[in-house]
User: Fold this.
Amino acid sequence: MKRTERDLRERDASHLPEELREEREKRLDDLREYWQNGEFPLNVDREERTPIFKNDRDVPRAMAYLVEQSGHEDLFEHIAETDNYVDIDDVEEGPLVEWIEGSGLTKEEAALVRPTYCGPYWPDYL
Assistant:
């Protein structure tokens, strides 16, 4: 997450309108706060490592945290209740895409705001 935040801050956003540049900075500040807090969701519902929007302890994944911190708690709760395993790469339209477009991030950048999920999940390893 730290590297993702740094990489996103280094990208040129000068082409964005001022309002979106400001929104982008706020979301990147939220991302920094998220990884510095160090509380990440553990998905124990599936054997394979799968991102979960919000786990059973109400811990959000990074993108969910950004949505929630932006004041869109209703969208945050709606996604957690209806599509808790949403993959940003698979979303083409709807409220989440609209939120991303208003965040100052691109869809591709939003997809980067997640840990790498590779290899099997071994609960005893954590």
User: Anything to note?
Assistant: The longest helix spans residues 18-37.
